[in-house]
Amino acid sequence: MAITQEVEDVIFGFDSSAGQVDNPVLVLLEKVQEYGEDVIKGKNAIGKPFYIMRMCEIFQLGIPTPNQIDAVIRAFKKVQDRYDIKPYLVIETTGMGLPNYQQFEQALPNVHGIHPTGEGSTVSQEGRIYKVPKVDLGSELQVLYENGRFLIPAGIKERKKIIKQFVNFTWIRKESGTLTVENLKSSDHDDVCDAAAVAAWFGTYGIRKFRTMAKPPGL
What is the pTM of this model? Predict the structure, then answer.
């Protein structure tokens, strides 16, 4: 059976909440689905979707919020003109992320938010904002990457640094007892992983729930 691949969705992930530790980051993911061609049964899915990072822009620390927002809007509109499908923009809404989300919501279509929550909480949804345990976001990204379903092409700028972040992105039990997901070394960055995690989680779960208007997992 012949295998074809097609881009099913295009998803931006934006994390501007890291403040003084990590840089604001904008990533662009293609969600790709593999299909088998069968003349009798038509098009049938034969594999799980995977993601390809097509862009990763790491902003400088201290860049003013209006400049960040302008850059994201320009990137969104440029991609919107390039693809036949409308892109999604997924904002991490902790810290400065929530006011950024509210500004993007006024300027662009298909804007959604993800607010990471603590261990033991469940996924919930308020309008277009999902509350998702950070361990769920991290585990989804880790499973995708370790199973070869999250690809970082050779042309991505600072690819080696990004891969290092992905390799060291893991579960950590803090002194308080809280389980979280971050870089193995607290001094290292995990900003790209955070932006990629909200985009990938939304691509795997949020889009389907949004389209079907069904309850998200955990409800």
Answer: 0.84
